[in-house]
Amino acid sequence: GNRARSRESGAATSSAQPASRGPDPEPPVSGSVRTVPTGKRYCFVAVKGHGDVFVHFNNFRHGEGDPARGDEVSLVVSKEEDGREIGKRATITRRKKRSADELLEFMRHQLDAPADLAKDSA
């Protein structure tokens, strides 16, 4: 597959940290939402206590359908970049006007929920 990683400007290169997991020398700060520069409709998030997750937005691409603006966004929390092992689905409507922080908090609740997040791992 095409898994080419382009580096976005503004990558925080602080003191060299020991590679504790994976070949990722610059893991995102926990709780930070970042769009992936591949044009795909998801963002990459590190949620405390859950590690790295991918949040897929049905209409999230290069600023379109920004949940921080309260746009209607249908999101899926997944452990896989391509959307496999889908954990939770939810729709954030314009009426709710969730901020980015509220979105992250919502995602944490979704990940913490015991529902079929790991049903496919059995």
Describe the structure.
With 122 residues, this protein is of the alpha+beta class. The chain has a domain at 33-113. 11% of the residues lie in helices and 24% in strands. It is built from one helix and five strands; from the N terminus they run E-E-E-E-E-H. It has a five-stranded antiparallel sheet, covered by helices on one side. A hairpin with a 3-residue loop joins strand 2 (42-47) and strand 3 (51-57). It is globular, with a radius of gyration of 15 Å. The protein starts with 32 loop residues before the first strand and ends in a 10-residue tail after the last helix. 16% of the residues are buried. The model is unreliable at 22-41, 59-65, 85-98 and 115-122 (pLDDT under 50). Residues 1-36 are annotated as: Disordered. It comes from Bicosoecida sp. CB-2014. This is CSD domain-containing protein.
Strand content: 15-25%
Class by SSE composition? alpha+beta
Strand order in the largest sheet: 1-2-3-4-5
Number of helices: 1
Largest sheet descriptor:
5 strands, antiparallel
How many DSSP E strands? Answer: 5
Protein name: CSD domain-containing protein
InterPro entries: NA-bd_OB-fold (IPR012340)
Region (Disordered): 1-36
